Amino acid sequence: MERVAYVENLRLKFPGKERLLFKDLSISFAKGEKVLLLGPSGCGKSTLLQVLAGLIPHSIEVPMKAKKIKIPERFGYVFQDPDSQFCMPYVDEEIAFVLENLCVPRHEMNERIHDLLNLVHLSLETPHTNIQTLSGGMKQRLAIASVLALEPDVLFLDEPTALLDEEGTKAIWQTIKTLAADRTVIIVEHKIEYVLDFVDRIVLFNEDGEIVADGNAHEVFTVYKQMIAEQGIWYPNIWEEYKKPITAQQPFHSPVPLLRIEHLRGYRQKQEKIYVEHITIHSGEWIAVTGENGAGKSTLLQAMMKLIPTDGTFEWCGQPLQSEKQLLKEVAFVFQNPEFQFVTHSVYDEMAYSLRLEKRSEHEVNEKVNELLQLFHLTEQKDEHPYQLSMGQKRRLSVAASIINKHKLLLLDEPTFGQDAKNTFALLEWLEMYRQRGTTIVMVTHDEQIVKHFATRRWKIENGRLIADEQLVSEEKADVVFSK
Amino acid sequence: MRINIVHRETWLHHTNPSVKLLLLLVLFVAVVFIHNPNVLINLTIGFFILFIAYTGYPLKYVMLFFLPFLFIFISTASSMILFGNGETTWFRWGVIHITEESFYRGVHLGFRALIFALLGLTFALTTRPVYLFYSLMQQLKLKPKYAYSFLAAVRLVPIMIEEFQTVHQALKVRGVADERGIRGKLELMKRYAIPLLSQSIRRAQRIAVAMEAKRFTNERKRTFYYEMKLSKYDVLFFLYVLIVTLIAYYLAIAHPYLLIKDVR
Boundaries of each ABC transporter domain copy (chain A) (predicted)? Predict the structure, then answer.
């Protein structure tokens, strides 16, 4: 069988790290194979992909050594982040950039651009469309179109859907499936639901960057399912097998509404972007805010916290709201990208920050912080800089730091986005635990399963309006629970 | 967030960016060596007409863009007028000392600043960065490495503005108060700069790797999606500049507004 890419006895070490990431790793890929690389985060799957494409060491300088290596002559590489793989502002210009690199004559370009966009089913009014106006899924399809311009034999896909919602993810894999036919496709992906029926080979890595299993996709998946599950990978039926906390979705109502807002309007650039006539939130509710991309979910959360210019009458615990400051004191907000809200230089200080702002005694701060460090499994990292944490740890820290001074209401903007299964479940369970203690949770999410398993109430947002407000847990059921 | 104002495309948009840039650079230098305020005033009028009529933006916006530069005109001129040296005193009060010489010099400097502003704004409003860099690569043989790096950076700007707003909100949520004093302000600057820079640096690096993965090399041989050529519009632009200059000199000699011919 013809081998299109291989590496033998690869040794690679990141500067500053103590041990080798790969020690004498050998792997090869045959023509036309569809391969999925699986492994826990940090095991080096993406790094291996970069080595196989020659990006390491040519574009990214990492010391490495290999006895033998073959880099495919024609390859295309799709990256994870839709916002950092384009260098031009418009769709046609971006594809043209690749064509220019290949010295395609100008008079052939328009037709090629048109064909490539059709190939990935990206239908735009005109190819001269601003990339910023596209959704994440569309951007990733554009990324695929522009690598297809290279006429690749081998496609490297480095978690192309990690930052996409479910719909975008489906569309991307649909597109890749139709294009892959005789190409070799090497994939790194955490959400394997959509790829499992497409790949014919799975390579499984362990934490030390060693290959544990390599073979027929279905065999590897069945035999090593337990290990795959432990690695926090999203596999099909994971939610059916997941045992949620018994308290989940049990109503917890207090008679006095926590927050009431009448005629809430939120503005961006002086335009009304969200309008909700009436909002009442009770303690212990878990409200899932759902809706399509750009419907106004994040805007609603920002308006509820008065982070953007807002109109409306606010009532907190039955009393008219005194000031914006009160809202900031009582309500915690967790942003989608946790890095933006880190304000100190160590994990410990980060947790202690809001307590110190309230001038609590250092003894009390210490006690409280240590308790939460333990609860959120961050004790070992307590002296590290927040930026040095892994994605999952950063998210945990941002939530922990937000809830440390017992906020009654917690607003979260897609906190599980791009997280692996293990981190997602852990986070949801913590939130549930806090809900049981009376914290109210309002959370933007795209994940229907979270709504199904954890939320007690759902808000549907469309075009800046609240179009549905459904109780997912009925009051009769509540009686049953309380009478037990 | 993007500043996107609907505007017409005029013949100025169709001039070759490199030609436009070079011509403006020549004008920038030349204006420094003009010492007759009458000429400068006439030139200002000539470029003001170009700015108002041919940048293609609605008058409201054109005036809005121009406003800060009007302020520069006033501040440049007034500081020279009020505190400059001269022999023929018109008015004196404490440190304020207005003389005939300083008055004309102030006005002269003000108009010079105004011409810089008008030319710069006209260029900025009628030139898409993408065209500018394509033209620089084709007409002035700029290395593609630099051209595309700049274009990638231009793409990062709106993303950074969005991130700035997010950081602002995040700091508010975390209870970071506006700190007073110079140390406080420095501290606040750090709070914004570190997350913004760390995001941008990582993003820039990723874009660079992505560009190389798309076979971008430092070779000069490449085709161009936008083939920038010289056209009749470039001749038109050159003629406009030339004629305005000639008229400015003629009028300055034939019908001067101010009697002074040299402000030095």
Answer: 5-233, 259-483
